[in-house]
């Protein structure tokens, strides 16, 4: 992968997956005992984990995707809402806007009521940036989408503070104005796996646009910036011919020592 080494991809994939468990021991992954802040949603459920170590420049914001029925229903809110209340001059998917704008329940003795999930995340990240950290953001599904918005806002208020954005199975975030004004496309990597249908959503190609470099994991290879129509076409063809592919001789030659050992 250009500009994203394999060990980095694997590290962020592991951290992204670990955003989902209720309990997460950050010290197992090299972060300080006090190097974690949690940002909760309106129900008090963890959505964002912010991780850091004093002796490392990079702090990591990990964001989970849809993980309950109410979150999945928000994905159906495919109209767009303005992000001016976040200090950004474009509109995004209304469901993602709701996730960011919902009141965040306190999870730390520093936390108070009255801040949105967006505001609390930006507040904590800004403190780390002011202490000399650079921020990497990684998220799965809708978590990747809202991560792009959070990163853009941080970059606006703290130029050059964002190290990279790595998302997994991310849907598109906003319209063409979002694509044109998003400042971090050159630092954004969208990882797509095979025919992950969520990466084609929302299903309105001219109303919603992706940003950044797309890395498609397919048939044991990594493809860069493959157009969605090509990706969909290859996957459908693969499904259609798969039963016939088992007729190939290569499928019968499983192991050259198979018969020798009998």
TrEMBL record:
Classification via InterPro entries: AB_hydrolase_fold, Fungal_lipase-type, Sec_MonoDiacylglyc_Lipase
A biological-process GO annotation? lipid metabolic process
Every Fungal lipase-type domain range: 60-204
SUPFAM superfamilies xrefs: alpha/beta-Hydrolases (SSF53474)
Q: What Pfam families does the entry give?
A: Lipase_3 (PF01764)
Signal sequence bounds: none
From the record, give the transmembrane residue ranges. none
Q: Which PANTHER family match?
A: ALPHA/BETA-HYDROLASES SUPERFAMILY PROTEIN, FUNGAL LIPASE-LIKE DOMAIN-CONTAINING PROTEIN
Q: What is this protein called?
A: Predicted lipase
Q: Which organism is it from?
A: Vibrio hangzhouensis
